[in-house]
TrEMBL record:
Keywords: Membrane, Transmembrane, Transmembrane helix. This is PepSY domain-containing protein. Pfam families: PepSY_TM. InterPro entries: PepSY-ass_TM. The chain crosses the membrane at residues 16-40, 154-174, 206-229, 361-382. The keyword Methyltransferase does not apply.
């Protein structure tokens, strides 16, 4: 009996899935595989960068001026010259604090201290081994190991194609008729079959189960490759085209340059007290950046849910009067519109950290499946029309196979 002729729609769909997959497969593999590596960076840093951890104590952190004095004395002694401090950062109760400074115009170093005692723990002059590894992985994920201006649009284009592949793959996967046999082929892997059949099942079945999460990870990532996509996505959610994924945030407010005298002797301490009073509970991260010019304000980054960034916001204070300066960046997550809240979740969704360790594990496996799809799909294409040595386990031609290929 001859096979039922496939519709024009299905033939076009399968043609698109095949050739778009072949043209974008290498980039998709690198992007997804590097995403797997990136997912567990926090756990790796926790175990390898011991200087970032301290034993929690039942007492408050030392004031910024105290830690800054200890860090500056240590840095000047080490560098053999005066240094300019650029900021101070506090973490959770089990995290060390660090003071950053510039030994030269291009370099940024950091002194890590115990926030309870002021003990110097570590002087950091560059990325650790673990950081260097994840910087390398991120370069592959974001830029395909190319200069950003070249690699970013390549990765973004491959991600758009990947979205199309997931849609066409779902259409190809969907059986024209649901039977006991097609249900088994669609939802289970036949581990006892030939390697060709197992490869086909890995492509089809795993691709189906990972589809929704993989789609969310991919679309949220396109935001960082194309400015037009970011602005369109932001407009769709908020009605406003001004977004921040590509540096569209409002410029910081300016200090009053007509004022020349400081109101407080230790302005960092005053700002620290102000921020602490607004957050009586533990705060994930508070970073105070110092003014560089006469018009620069003190900029305070507050992230209650570190490492998640969706609740992160900034506050600005005049460098002399310490009067708080209004800014759009000071709007808290709780005060944002529904659309803005969804937009702020984008990064945490993309890297899989929105729900903590459980969603990072999910993102790891989905990214791993995403990396496998170009490989299993290529194998299906390469072996098209070839008969299996085991007659009972022969593989159907890819033109009639279920699933993504």
């Amino acid at each position: 009996m001859s096979k039922k002729k496939r519709s024009l729609f299905r033939r076009v769909n399968e043609w698109l899935h095949l050739w778009l997959g072949l043209t974008s497969g290498l980039v998709v593999f690198v992007v997804c595989f590097c995403a797997c590596l990136w997912v567990f960076r926090y756990e790796v840093w926790y175990f390898t960068e011991t200087y970032q951890r301290v034993e929690p104590q039942q007492k408050p952190f030392l004031a910024p001026s105290v830690l800054m004095k200890k860090a500056q004395d240590f840095a000047q002694k080490t560098e053999g010259k005066p240094v300019t401090l650029t900021g101070i950062t506090y973490g959770r109760t089990d995290k060390s604090a660090f003071v950053s400074y510039q030994p030269s115009k291009e370099a940024y170093y950091a002194i890590y201290l115990n926030p309870y005692t002021g003990e110097i723990i570590h002087r950091k002059t560059g990325p650790s081994t673990a950081e260097a590894f994840f910087i390398f992985a991120r370069s592959g994920h974001r830029f395909f190991f190319l200069p950003p201006a070249i690699g970013s649009p390549i990765v973004g284009s491959a991600c758009i194609i990947f979205v199309i592949l997931m849609i066409t793959g779902l259409i190809w996967w969907y059986p024209q008729k649901w039977t006991k046999s097609t249900r088994a082929k669609s939802f289970t892997i036949k581990w006892g079959a030939t390697w060709k059949r197992i490869n086909l099942d890995l492509h089809n079945v795993l691709g189906f189960y990972a589809l929704l999460v993989c789609m969310a990870l991919t679309i949220s990532g396109i935001v960082y490759s194309f400015h037009w996509f970011d602005k369109s996505y932001h407009w769709l959610l908020t009605g406003n085209t001004q977004s921040n994924a590509h540096g569209d945030e409002m410029p910081p407010p300016h200090s009053d340059t007509t004022l020349t005298a400081r109101v407080y002797a230790n302005p960092e301490d005053r700002i620290w007290q102000e921020v602490g009073g607004q957050h009586p509970d533990e705060v994930g991260k508070v970073s105070i950046s110092f003014p560089k010019t006469l018009s620069d304000p003190y900029e305070v980054l507050i992230n209650p849910e570190d490492p998640n960034i969706y609740k992160m916001y900034h506050r600005f204070f005049d460098r002399n009067s310490l009067a708080e300066l209004p800014s759009e960046e000071s709007r808290r997550y709780e005060d944002a519109s529904t659309g803005e809240k969804i937009y702020r979740l984008n990064f945490d969704i993309h890297v899989g950290q929105i729900g903590g360790l459980s969603t990072r594990i999910l993102a790891f496996f989905v990214s791993l499946i995403g990396a496998s799809l170009p490989i299993t799909g290529f194998i299906i294409w390469w072996n098209r029309g070839k008969k299996s040595s085991r007659r009972s386990g022969s593989i159907p031609d890819t033109s009639t196979a279920l699933g993504m290929s």
